[in-house]
Amino acid sequence: YKPALEKLGLTYPQYLIMLILWQQDGIALKDIADRLFTESGALTPVLKRMQEMGLLVRSRSPHSERTLEIRLTDAGREMRQLALQVNQS
User: Which distant-in-sequence residues (6+ apart) come within 8 Å of 68 by Cβ?
Assistant: First the structure.
């Protein structure tokens, strides 16, 4: 995966998060952590870096102040097409 991920500018954990978000955008942090079999606190620094990269936005759910929702930005959605091209080469 390393050469392909370098083209995308992602680490493997970031790529796994993107795969989840490409399947289901606007998902709770807890749900991402559950799918990756990890603690949500372990994902926080990774998600912060991804937000700084402009790939996603972290925000509180309008339904529950305790729930942190993760949503893709336009750049994050566009990266899916680039990832498909990289996987084909």
Answer: 28, 29, 30, 40, 58, 59, 60, 61
